[in-house]
Structures are given as structure tokens and as C-alpha cells.
Write a structure and sequence with these properties.
This is Lipocalin-like domain-containing protein. The protein is mostly beta strands and 128 residues long. Helices cover 15% and strands 51% of the residues. It contains two helices and eight strands; from the N terminus they run H-H-E-E-E-E-E-E-E-E. The longest helix has 15 residues. It starts with a helix and ends with a strand.
């Protein structure tokens, strides 16, 4: 009887542990994210709609940032790394350090960058 009780208690403990209560981790942001809106702009130009960020395992990310330049569309390659600071905060390390708070909602990523003079919000949708 004592063995059955201990076995039942062990099974209950194991089964009651669920990943539903876990905080956001790096694996949830892995993949390709496409820019869909930018807080500095009312309408996202077609050129900028090509912008994408790819979160890769082991804290690496790459991306292609597109910005209009007159009638041209300038592309800047992004190569950086990221470190998880808190459940929704990542430090992006590249040519400069940017603290970004990231909120994940299903297949949407809300990326908020804060500086001493400005807050910028970029919205991405997961494409792969």
C-alpha cells in the first residue's frame, strides 16, 4: 500500500508539471520574422515590407533591413547575437547594443526599442 501511495504521488507530481506555466524562452522566437508595421510610419512602404529578421539557435540572428532612398530600396545586412535578459527582454549585440523588449503573441512579435530620446515599436509576423 505504501509503495502504491509513493508511486501515485510521484506520478501526480510529474504529471502536474506543465510547460504552460513556463516563461518565454529563446526557442519561441526561433525562425523568420517579417516586418509588418513600424511606429514611426503611418503606412509601411513596399520597400520596407521586405525586411526580415531570422532568430537562429545559440543566440545568433541575421536579417535584411530595407529602407527607401528616393526611388531606390537600400538593403542593409544585419548580423548580430542576442541574449535573454528576462522573460520578455533580449539584448541585441551587433554594431551597437540595443535593449529590446519582446512580446510574443502566437505568430506575432512586438519588438520595442527604447533609447533616452525615443521609443520605437516594430511589429513582425512569423513566416517560417
Amino acid at each position: 500500500m505504501k509503495k502504491i501511495f509513493i508511486l501515485s504521488l510521484t506520478l501526480f507530481t510529474l504529471l502536474s508539471c506543465s510547460s504552460d506555466d513556463e516563461t518565454v524562452d529563446a526557442t519561441t522566437i526561433l525562425g523568420t520574422w517579417k516586418l509588418i508595421s513600424h511606429s514611426d510610419l503611418t503606412t509601411l512602404p513596399d520597400c520596407m515590407k521586405q525586411t526580415k529578421i531570422i532568430f537562429i539557435e545559440h543566440g545568433n540572428l541575421s536579417g535584411e533591413i530595407y529602407e527607401p532612398n528616393g526611388e531606390n530600396c537600400d538593403k542593409t545586412n544585419l548580423v548580430a547575437s542576442y541574449e535573454k535578459e528576462t522573460e520578455t527582454s533580449y539584448t541585441i549585440i551587433g554594431s551597437s547594443t540595443i535593449l529590446a523588449e519582446v512580446e510574443l503573441e502566437s505568430n506575432k512579435l512586438i519588438w520595442t526599442e527604447k533609447s533616452s530620446t525615443k521609443t520605437r515599436i516594430l511589429n513582425f509576423i512569423k513566416v517560417k
